[in-house]
Design brief:
The structure is a single chain. The chain is an alpha/beta fold. Helix content is about 45%, strand content about 20%. The protein contains 14 helices and 19 strands. The strands form 5 sheets. The chain has a 9-stranded mixed beta sheet with strand order 10-11-9-8-7-6-5-2-12. Strands 13-14-15 form a 3-stranded antiparallel beta sheet, with no helix packed on it. β5, α3 and β6 form a beta-alpha-beta unit. S-adenosylmethionine binds next to β5, β7 and β8. The site of S-adenosylmethionine has 18 residues, from β5, β7 and β8.
């Protein structure tokens, strides 16, 4: 899309979001007021961000720093202090899931285990623990330590089993190493092993993508998450390409490959669980972003609270200093107005590709009739169909609705993260 197309599309989404959520919602992240504290919580999830990577991948948009062993202890102390900060503020809530992302969290497994112990001491942990890892970082010892930390679900960032694609992405392992890592995890006794595979890479064909899925399934993956390659302006490739907007993958390649992935998964016993994810029956679902609420620990970690979103400072040193002095690390906050929390819930049900219609009233209150009208239009357009009280996106629906949603979500993320990376305590950021 050219600049004018982007401008037009942005105006259109702004009109839609204003119509749906209402004029009271301000789409601005601001520094929280002095002395701000989150509300008390009965139940939530927890996200731990471990920002270390041995090598930065040129396309990766997440907050990370090169791994240096001497950074791990200050990181751990700050993470322990932040768990305490949240527990003091929100109370001894039930934690229904823990997601540990990065970076490469398995580079600091002792640290992760200590933070998890503190989470168990300060909260009531009832849910599963999920962690991300990298093929270059998995061996027998990793598997043993993951179990002893109580981790049940693991996600391996394979991206591709083809040397050409790994080289293109700057991944520093070869296909046999990725295969060994996956086999170790698959035979390692976890409740579920997810594999991330990328598609719509330059020069990649639909057959290459389905061959990657087949290899992952053959080696024992329980879940397959497929991401098209997005290029963020502030990543190394984005800067090289002088981008100002998130570059979406080529539409035609993306459409053909999306269809091939959907068909391959349906044929091989993997059911769709989100716009990008497919899992085998009877294994628990691995997911990072669809939780109803979570508190975030770590530099750049976000929290989804009942009354708004908050985002920690992205800068590792600033975050460590804030936690060391007992202050909050929250740099930006967007409070919810009206039924914003309910619309956000509905956004993620679209991501799940499945909406239980009976839940609409509880989630959206007075806005439920408006949501029902809107969902009816989606259904009439053939983008969704009813099954047992659920509204399920059809294959074209999953593709097209997500394409639009994705485009704007990524541009919001880009606006917010660009500013949050530029300075540790940013001023207001309008999204
Ligand atoms: C935080 S990353 C996992 C990092 C893990 N340390 C690794 O190296 O595999 C989670 C997943 O996001 C996906 N991802 C990261 N950057 C992406 C981008 N620019 N476009 C599409 N997917 C991306 C990758 O599939 C990656 O496995």
């Amino acid at each position: 899309m050219n600049q004018a197309g982007h401008g037009l599309a942005r105006l259109l989404t702004r009109a839609v979001r204003r119509y749906l959520v209402g004029p009271d919602q301000r789409w601005v992240f601001e520094p929280p007021p002095p002395g701000w504290r989150p509300p008390r919580l009965e139940r939530t999830s927890l996200y731990l961000h471990v920002p270390f990577c041995r090598h930065g991948c040129p396309y990766c948009p997440y907050t990370k720093v090169p791994y240096r062993p001497e950074l791990v202890e200050p990181f751990t102390r700050a993470a322990l202090a932040e768990v305490d900060w949240w527990a003091d503020a929100v109370g001894p809530a039930e934690i229904t899931s823990v997601y540990i992302g990065g970076g490469t969290p398995t580079l600091a497994l002792d640290s992760v285990a200590r933070v998890l112990r503190r989470v168990r001491q300060r909260f009531r942990l009832t849910g599963d623990i999920c962690i991300e890892t990298n093929p270059a970082d998995v061996n027998e010892e990793t598997v043993r330590r993951l179990h002893s930390a109580g981790v049940a679900l693991v996600s391996l960032g394979v991206q591709s089993f083809l040397p050409r694609n790994l080289a293109l992405l700057g991944r520093r392992y070869d296909p046999p190493a990725a295969e060994r890592a996956l086999a170790l995890l698959a035979q390692g006794g976890f409740a579920s092993v997810n594999v991330d595979i990328m598609f719509a890479l330059p020069g990649q064909t639909a057959d290459e993508v389905t061959a990657d899925l087949a290899r992952a399934a053959q080696l024992g993956a329980d879940q397959l998450t497929t991401y098209p390659l997005f290029t963020f302006p502030y990543t190394s490739v984005g800067q090289y390409l002088r981008l100002t907007e998130v570059r979406m993958p080529d539409l035609r390649a993306r459409r053909a490959q999306y269809r091939a992935i959907d068909g391959w998964c349906a044929e091989h016993g993997f059911q769709r669980v989100s716009v990008w994810g497919f899992k085998r029956d009877a294994v628990p679902r691995y997911s990072s972003v669809t939780r109803d609420g979570y508190i975030g620990v770590g530099p750049g970690a976000g929290s989804h609270l009942p009354d708004g979103f908050v985002l920690n400072t992205f800068d590792l040193d600033t975050w460590i200093r804030a936690m060391g002095s007992g202050h909050s690390a929250v740099a930006l906050r967007m409070p919810f107005a009206g039924e914003m929390a309910g619309w956000w819930w509905l956004y993620w049900r679209f991501y799940d590709t499945r909406i239980l219609l009976d839940d609409l009233e509880a989630a959206l209150g007075g806005d439920a009739p408006k949501a029902r009208r809107w969902l009816r239009a989606v259904e009439q357009a053939g983008l969704a169909a009813r099954h047992d009280g659920n509204l399920e996106l059809t294959e074209p629906g999953a593709f097209w609705l997500h394409l639009a949603q994705n485009h704007f979500a990524l541009n919001y993320v880009n606006t917010l993260w660009t500013e949050a990376r530029r300075q540790p305590w940013p001023q207001a950021v309008a999204i």
